Amino acid sequence: MRAIFTSVVGAWISTQLLLSVPCLAFPVQDHCPNHAPFAQTTNGTVCGIDLPGFNQAAFFGIPYAQPPVGDLRLRHAIPYNHTYSAYPAIAQPPSCPGYAGFDVGIGPLSEDCLYLNIVRPSMQENVSHGALPVLVWIYGGGFDAGGIADPRYNMSYIVQQAAAMHKPILGVSINYRVGGWGFLSSREVLAAGTANIGLFDQRRALEWIQENIGTFGGDPAQVTIWGESAGAFSVGYHLVGFEGKHANLFRGAILESGSMLGSALQDSETITQPGGFQEMYDNVTMTVGCADAADTLACLRHVSYESLFDAFAPQVYTPVIDRTFLTRRPSESLARGLVADVAVLVGANTDEGTAAFWGPRGTLNTSADVAAYIKTLNGGGLDHQQVDELLKLYPDDPAKGCPYGTGEERFASQGWMYKRGAAIAGDIFVHAGRRRVAEFFAARQTGNPTYSYRFDQAPWNGVEELITTVAPVYSTHYVELIFVFNNPSPNLSNSIGPYASYHDLSTLMSRSWVSFVHDLNPNHYGLGKQVHWPAYTAARPQNIVFRAEDNQGGVFVEQDTYRTEQLAWWNTHWSYLRS
């Protein structure tokens, strides 16, 4: 095991050094180098690189849309319309402009960022198995950051696990616009039909995959979309987008720590309320000198990149109800059954609420503080009676608070009632949506299976370096992701760690995800006797719980009954919460 670990880490280091140069540094050529992997796209031949340490070929920085610059800035992506004889897809593309502090190692930023990466097994592996299922990664980052150049999202390891278990897949990761570049909204934007740019970027990339993935060895009929956090919300929005008409762009969906529920969505009415996106838009136009222009949106397309980057920086932008992609609130789409009919794998981490950005740190010391915090959730849609109901459902009892299983410890340095607020935050933003999605898809009984999990493993050293940063951490938001990507590098923030049991858990999770992508069943992971992951059904709603073997006995199956009353409350009140 240690020899394999050492060789894989060596391969990772050499791969990252090779791919650290922006793709735009390489000119388009007349032909691919001898023996280089290549594929024919609708725009021409794409030249890739061999990754001998993984027995893979990789294609980095393939354009899937016209560069969104100049007059194409702040518009929906359109198909790439240039042709090339031999496009050098050999280095990581620039990342879209983003702002969050956890954007670590994603390389240079550029408006010209609509690229995707493809990692595939060797062609010999492809030929022996025919067209391969395709796993498409959509990164998170609060719709404010992220990029496929992030080394934590290196797909070579999960593709390598797939080959080792004789269920090869192709891995695709896609850049999309974030922040104001991807989610600017206002009356002007809605009138122009250019809202939710980032979601349309993702949709364009999925269309490109349908048009081209076959020449890379992939099967366009076997695509699974996969996201975490804002990436999982994105996946959720694709499930309810266009009234659930997903145009057969995917057959499976994986949602980690997010869904289409939990986040408030502004619309044409609420957008103009105090603190709404209209106010933010007006601030941006004023800052860059476009406020008096006859067409402020057109003006924004032609101010300098640096000016607009700085103007967007103080604001946080998220998707809206645009009446095209998102025609109504997702809770209403679920109620009406206007949801794509696909297989689903959905899950959450036990202690989601300890993530620092949910809000309750250092501010909640009394019940009045907790009530005030509840009133701010999702723009303040709850009345006094509803707030009182939640105070009863989440009492001042630290033994019932988050992080769970920590007894009477209050972590009082974060606020006397911190655990109470963290429990509320984790449930509204992640856990309630996870249960509603699992229950909805299980109840459909259309033949597409549903699987649900709970991740219950703290980082090996009790430290989370990007999302939570301050104790308590426990099994917080984001910590499961390194296990699924199966990236063994000890140099990454939030690494798997040095313990064999943690790497065994990572192998199991990574292979379970592959098995779902390949077979729509996560149990064919080829590791011998392990806990069976049961399908989630209306009659038997169950989660698999992922723990390392030396953590209370490791993986097990539970009935999905935790916090029944609390999660049911959220799932019957989404209309008040604009979700």
UniProtKB/TrEMBL annotation:
Residues 1-25 form the signal peptide. Residues 37-551 form the Carboxylesterase type B domain. Keywords: Hydrolase, Signal. GO terms for biological process: antibiotic biosynthetic process; monocarboxylic acid biosynthetic process. InterPro entries: AB_hydrolase_fold (IPR029058), AChE-related_enzymes (IPR050654), CarbesteraseB (IPR002018), Carboxylesterase_B_AS (IPR019826), Carboxylesterase_B_CS (IPR019819). GO terms for molecular function: carboxylic ester hydrolase activity. The keyword Signal applies. Its EC number is 3.1.1.-. It is an enzyme of class 3 (hydrolase). Pfam families: COesterase (PF00135). It comes from the Eukaryota. Belongs to the type-B carboxylesterase/lipase family. This is Carboxylic ester hydrolase. It comes from Penicillium daleae.
